[in-house]
Amino acid sequence: MTRRVAILTGPGFQDEEFVYPYYRFSEDSEVVVATTTGTDVFGKYGVPARSATRFHDLDPSAFDLVYLPGGFEAPDRVRNEESALNFVRGMHDLNKGIAAICHGPWILVSANVIGGRRVTGFSSIRQDLINAGGIYSDEPVVVDGNLVTAPHYRNNPEFMLATLEMLNRLPNR
Fold first, then answer.
1. What was the pLDDT predicted at 63?
2. Is 103 a catalytic residue?
3. What does pTM read for this prediction?
4. Which residues touch 67 (CB under 8 Å, ≥6 apart)?
5. Helix 156-169 × helix 15-26 angle, to 10°
6. CATH assignment of 3-169, given 3.40.50.880, 3.40.50.620, 3.40.50.1820, 3.40.50.2300?
7. Does the pLDDT of residue 172 top 90, yes or no?
8. Backbone phi and psi for residue 6, each to the nearest 5 degrees, phi listed first
9. Which of 56, 92, 103, 152 is catalytic?
C-alpha cells in the first residue's frame, strides 16, 4: 500500500520548506496538498503549491503523515482554521506521523498536541512552544515518537531523513 502524506499550507509559506519535502515525500508516497479553499497558494518567493483538496475534506484515517511547512505567514493562517486543527488532532489521536518545521509547530500549539513532547521550531516561537507545554530543545531536528520538528530550512536534509525514518517505523494505515 502506498503511503499518503498530507501537506497543510497557506499563502506565504517558506518556499524551501515546501519544495524540498514535497519532492522527497513524492519519491515513495502519494502527496496531497491541502489549503483552506482547495485552491493553489504561493510561497513567500512565488513558488506555487498546487492544492488537491480543502482542509475540511481531509480524513486522518486516510493518511500516514501530516507535514506542516513554515514561513510565519502560512502557519499563522492555517492555525486559525478549525478544520486543519481537527485534522492534526485526528492524526495525533491515531498516532500517525506528524512533521513540522520553522513556524509550522505553531499549528501544533493551536491543535493542543505538544504538551509533554520534545519539540523545536524557529527561535521566535520558542516561548509559544514552551507555553503550550512542549519541552523545547535547541537542536537541528527533534524526534519524539511520531513527531518530528526542525527550526529552519537549512535543516531540511536531517529533518527529512528523520521524518522518513519515523514514517517507515510507523504501521501503514
1. 98
2. yes
3. 0.97
4. 5, 6, 7, 8, 21, 25, 99, 100, 104, 163
5. 40
6. 3.40.50.880
7. no
8. -100, 130
9. 103
pLDDT of residue 173: 74
Q: Return the SS3 of 62.
A: helix
Nearest to 120 by CA among 155, 87, 72, 78: 155
Please compute the mean of the pLDDT values over residues 55-74 and round it to a whole number: 97
And the C-alpha cell for 72? 510565519
Grid coordinates standing for 145?
515518537
Task: Name residue 33's beta-bridge partners.
Answer: 7
The residues spanned by each domain of the chain are: 3-169
Is the CB of residue 98 less than 8 Å from the CB of residue 65?
Answer: yes
pLDDT in tens, 76-127: 999 999 999 999 999 999 999 999 999 999 999 999 999 999 999 999 999 9
